[in-house]
Amino acid sequence: MSGLLSRFGARLVFSNRAISKHLIPRSFNSPQGVICLSTVQKTRYQPHNVEQSSRGLDKTDDITRLEHFLRKQRLKGALYSSKENAKFADKFWEDIIEAGDVLLAERYLNMRVRLGLHIDAEKVLKDMREASMLPTARIYGVFIHQSCAVGDMNQTNSYLRLLRDAGLRPNSYIFSQILHGYVKAGLPEEVSSTQELLSEIGLWPSRYAYEGLLSAYADLGDKQSLLRILDEAYTVLPSLVNSDENHFGREISPTFLMDLYTRINCSQSDSNATCIEILEKLPSTDDFFPYDFAQDTVKVLLAKGRPAAALEVFKIMRPENATEGYLHSLPLYAATGGLNSEALEPFWEAARLDSKQLMVLKNKCKLYFNRSNRPPSTLANQFSNYIEEKNVEAAIDMLKDLNRTNSPIVYTFMVPKLMRLGYSLTDLIERVQNPEINGALAFGYVLNSVLSIDSKETFKEDLKKCLSLVNEYRAKKLLPYTDFIRVGNYQMEKLLSNILSLSDMSEIEEMNKSTIMFEVFGILNHAMSKREFHSLFAQIFEALLISKHRHFNNVPKNTVIQLVADACARQNIVFDKTDWLLSAMRSAGVSEETLIRLTVDYSTNRLPFADLNTLLFSGRIAGIGSKSNEKSSTTVGQMSVSPKESILSVAQSLVRLQKENPSEYENKLNSIENSWGIQKKSILILNLVNLGAEDLVERTIQYLPENQREKSEPLKRFAHIIRVCSASDANKTKALESVKETIQSLTGLPSEDLFNTLRGPHMDTLFRCWPVDHVSDLIVMVKKVSELGLNSVSLQLAGVLINRGLVDQVSALLGKNTTIPFTFLVGSPRHPLTESAFHSTMEYIKTNDPKHIPGFVDYTLRNAALSNNEDNLHQLIRTAVSPAYNVDLTEICILPTLQVICNRLEESKNLPADVLQATRSIVEKYQSSKQKVSK
Asked: Which Pfam families does the record cross-reference, listed alphabetically (predicted)?
């Protein structure tokens, strides 16, 4: 039986939530990608007696063994070597294959790669094929993670082609791994090219992409590049947000920052190294702070012999509040890291221990504690004891010392007990005087009011009271609840049981919908933010899937899952296409129509992967290095195919053939019309617009479906503007009259038409050649688009205006006192800054954002080095080191920039003497860094 229980086992045993994201390479030269499992203690699920599977895993024995393995790794992972981890992990693969559960396989493989254990992709695919198991995108994603972690981009390309051939699409995480892999491979040119290509399809800049870059630089121990890119991410990501709706998805999470901190410190040769700059990015203790993850980080760093780095984390997590059990566990990890008792003395000082406590800890410093025997948190027990003793004052006093990280215990445990004692929310807020938990208190009153609705006679009245309660709390700014949501399985089951007891059974039997369920969930929707409401639904599905109950109020569990899925879809909640819950819902009988309504592909909804693969890898793999000569064997090797011509190259060849070979030109167009997909044709059109190929744009638009031709009509006008304004012939003045008419026709278009055409590779070219006299018209159009959510277009235009010396126009676009992120000011490899643009932009940066002058100069020179204009690079170097700016290139250029500049200088046949002199120091620095890496 590889049904819901196996899926429960997959979720429980190989859950991403159970695995922390700490990278802990065994030594400075050890393979990257090794991750330690979290040591944060979780409540252990006790498997109940169920029917044994007719195939594969014994659900009461093997699932327990799997759970025990993960629990053991979660507690002791930092203490095991890769060999020891592999010894345990290898036992389970045959059982998982025999069970035939793909979800279980996903989580097992994900666990292996995060532990740094090798995965034989060929064997995995062979075993799954023989077991009639279809690999998912996550399976291929694990392979890609493994190859990118070591910078093997040839192998990555093979896996991506396997993914495409399987009819699957990658997710944002896979794209971030591609960037990660290019950094690991030492190919900054490919990093830049990939960023440029991803920006054309809306995937750069993004949080996922930045995290891929940051983790790679951390693994390599390149602290300068890491901090520069981290600063860039914090500058760029907030500027892309137009509203609160997508704010969470653009933030770099505190847990990732601590993971980054662990990676960079474990990659340094100096065991006393720290990186305070990362910790300074963490939220203060008054904001959301992942204390459990911070505690885990301290242990991992101690286990890796990094006491100084561990101490810095310990200091920011309120060490004086550290529990006795936690402090007693630190010697175990310190001993594993080869440290002695003296290394822990700064921790005891930070914890402000008295002499007696200090003596006890010193005496126990060499002992190994079994943390699984550590008593659970006493917070809930202490509160219950106060209530039972009728010492309510003491119970309320406990609330005064809580913070946002304690929110779940407030609304699920403490509020219900206080409500039963007759306390109102107003009374509690006035007595507790702790604004940090006001939201949790308010949500607790709403949640428990909803849970108490269990009477058909008073249902409508109770529902109205709950809605009134929510409206009252929203008016007082206590709701919507926006902090972490975690509701226990008991509350979930009670909520569903109550709803079903009140529902019309005939309605449910007909499987139309549950009106009452929709209304009750509507109350909760009104009481919390969209992100938390999504999380609540995910937890409801999880609670159902692992529940031991087969029926709720005589309604079969699968039927309940179907009802909840319908209510979820009607509340406009969507899940990532790769989310395991969708597969579990399908197994429970949720209709495909409902699943479609519940599904959104966050990463690839604009482009089929066949085209993305061409964009990312066409013609660019051959020069990767020695690894390109290695032959892939058997399955993987046989599936790899030759790279195809890039879409940009096709566009350029069409423009050339139109003049040189009309016959071949027609043949190529006919092939495109008959064999290319719609979205690939759309990308070709955008590249033709960028080239100003007006006639070709008009012709290829006819290859699109009729409903898309009209939407693409403005592209012909953009191509006309680029062609005329980029020309240098004598007829340009006369042609500019037609440009004026074209611009007037564009300004009258509605926002929706502009939204579909004002994005893509042609934007930079269009903005840079746009007539100065008509910049105000361009600003009007871009502002229309920005109102629909494309804020990055406004920033892109603002950057070009500053490059062109039109700073006075920027305020009309973005308003006064808006600083443009420096990454929008640095040009691109296609359009590097000229000397005059550098001067104009540097004046703006010096006045408005002087702290980012190093980042601006570094990025500008990198783009110039990646371009085809060698003379322009030389002139920019002269300008940067001139007395006017006196830039020290060895100080401001990070390693990727040094690499591309040095490579370009080596290729130069006639390097001017002054440029040679100006770059001598950076060449020496780059050569020195290469020697360190080789050692």
From this structure: PPR_3 (PF13812)
Long-range interactions of 825-828: CB distance < 8 A, separation 24+: 825/799, 825/856, 826/799, 826/856, 826/859, 826/860, 826/863, 827/803, 827/860, 827/863, 827/864, 828/196, 828/764, 828/863
- Examine the pLDDT at 377 and tell me if it is beyond 60: no
Nearest to 104 by CA among 475, 550, 587: 587
492's CB contacts (< 8 A; 6+ apart) are 539, 540, 543, 544
Span 547-584, pLDDT tens digits = 667 788 788 888 888 888 888 888 888 887 766 677 77
Percent helix, strand and coil across the chain, each rounded to 5?
65, 0, 30
How far the first Cα of the chain sits from its last, in Å, is 53
For residues 688 and 702, the answer to whether their CB atoms sit within 8 Å is no
- Cα→Cα distances 275→78, 258, 897, 929, Å: 21, 10, 22, 20
The token pair at 162 is 């396997």
Q: What average pLDDT does range 322-335 have in this prediction?
A: 81
Map residue 528 onto helix, strand or coil.
Answer: strand
Q: Is 306 helix (H, G, I), strand (E, B) or coil?
A: coil
CB 441 within 8 A of CB 527: no
Burial of residue 768 (number of CB atoms within 10 Å: 0-12, 13-18, 19+)? middle
Q: How far apart are CA 45 and CA 64, in angstroms?
A: 9
Partnered with residue 575 across adjacent β-strands are 599
For residues 597 and 154, give the distance between their C-alpha atoms in angstroms, rounded to a whole number. Answer: 37
Please compute the mean of the pLDDT values over residues 621-629 and round it to a whole number: 41
Q: Which residue has the tokens 């991992």?
A: 300
The structural domains of the chain, with segments of one domain joined by +, span 1-134, 390-587, 819-935
Question: Is the N-terminal amide bond of 254 cis, ω within 30° of 0?
Answer: no
Please give the pLDDT value at position 460. 82
pLDDT for 52: 30
- The CA-based dihedral angle spanning residues 152, 158, 159, 164, taken in that order and rounded to the nearest 10 degrees: 150
Quick one: average pLDDT of 354-371? 54
Position 589, amino acid: G
Q: What proportion of the chain, given as a percentage, has pLDDT over 90?
A: 31
Report the Cα 313 to chain-centroid distance in Å: 23
Taking every pair of Cα atoms in the chain, the longest distance, rounded to a whole number of angstroms, is: 95
8 Å CB contact between 25 and 31: yes
The answer to whether the CB of 104 falls within 8 A of the CB of 78 is no
Is residue 276 predicted with pLDDT exceeding 90?
yes
DSSP states of 308-363 as a string? HHHHHHHHTS-GGG--HHHHHHHHHHHHHTT--HHHHHHHHHHTT--HHHHHHHHH
Its pTM stands at 0.63
Within 13 Å, how many C-alpha atoms sit on residue 486's CB side?
Answer: 10
SS3 of 55-121: the string is CCCCCCCHHHHHHHHHHHHHHHHHHCCHHHHHHHHHHHHHHHHHHCCHHHHHHHHHHHHHCCCCCCH
Q: 433 phi and psi, to 5 degrees?
A: 55, 50
pLDDT at 546: 64
DSSP type of residue 412:
I
Measured CA to CA in angstroms, residue 400 lies from 392, 427, 429, 434, 892 at distances of 13, 14, 10, 6, 48
The residues near 893 (Cβ < 8 Å, ≥ 6 apart) are 858, 861, 901, 922
What is the distance between the alpha carbons of residues 217 and 904, in angstroms, rounded to a whole number?
22
CA-closest candidate to residue 860, choices 891, 882, 843, 837 = 837
CA angle 374, 378, 382 (to 5 degrees): 155
| Beta bridge partners of residue 41, listed in sequence order | none
Rounded Cα distance between 339 and 14, Å, is 32
Mean of pLDDT over the chain = 79
Between the alpha carbon of residue 518 and those of residues 452, 480, 490, 872, 887, the distances in Å are: 17, 19, 20, 63, 63
Element (H, E) at 552: strand 551-552
